[in-house]
Fold this protein.
Amino acid sequence: MIEREPGERAKMGLCLGGGGITGVMYEVGCLAALEESFEGFSAADFDVYVGSSSGATLAAVLAGGHSALRLYRALLDPADDFFNLKRNHLLRLDAKEWRRVASSVVGAARRFVSSAASSPLELDVWNELDRFWDSLPAGIFTLDPYERFLEAFMARRQIPQDFDELPRTLFLVANDLDRGERAVFGDGELSNVPISRAICASSAIPVLFAPVRVDGRDFIDGGMGDVAHADLAANAGCSVVLIINPMVPVRASQDSPGVPTGHGPGRRVRDKGLIWVNSQAWRLRSEARLLEGIRQYELDHPDTELLLLEPAPDDATVFMYSPMNFAARRAILEDGYRRTRQALDADGSELRAHLLAAGLRPA
């Protein structure tokens, strides 16, 4: 733990990862607990915000000056229109992408017919059918309606679209699809991109959403990286960085049906189908990479403290419920809140000790 002068407040960063809408709800619950645990503290008081994937939206809202408790109340009240997100803002088929699919299927079919007609005896059917793999869409849905929703929301809540006009520093992380490298909106050549567009670029989960094009470049979901992109906050001068990671592996118990599915309670992750099998594989990889990355980063940078908040694997099945389900929404928010309060109130709490040492005052 870094020693500071009495009353000195450390420069603090907040890194918010993905996990979809349910992940954001967990993060809101965690931050609401922090606001109630420290006197005069708001989640809008961090010096630097780093958002990736669905965490990009929350990072932008907080950097724009809104508290976690305000979001917590809004998400618990169906009548509260503070952030009135609907299914159709996210689940809209990408018409342009599906037109490209239709055109490429026609082209592949023509080549197949041409090969069959010119050399019918030498035709390798399976090899010819491979042509159609390249006709699959780059993503099922488009984030264009979500971008329009964000534009209206930010205007209504007086959150600037310009990174330079925000009261706090904000970095939004995506991956450049063609360059195969991390891209940071709010920094360098990507600092002039509208925040709503940058959020969509960071949130474009592969397969589910088509890549988001910005200035001729295609961007996809930023992921967690090696250290949840905490290096961006550290490089901006933060000596304490709080990482909230909702993307932990789910631990399903085969002794009781705790996996919610559309066809009744299940006992295994596979009962949830293809999307959740893929999600679990992603969670396993990203969690292992994150823990190792944090360990190594702290060894290499002893002047930076990385604090990690994440759900227990046994509780993670709650993320399998639909975020549009009000009961599930309440359970996720309350789980994030409860877990954080437990971490702060436990005897010898390292999290509490680090935050007090950073200059926060207990409530």
Notes: The first strand starts at residue 12 and ends at 16. Residues 274-300 form the longest helix (27 residues). The mean pLDDT is 90.
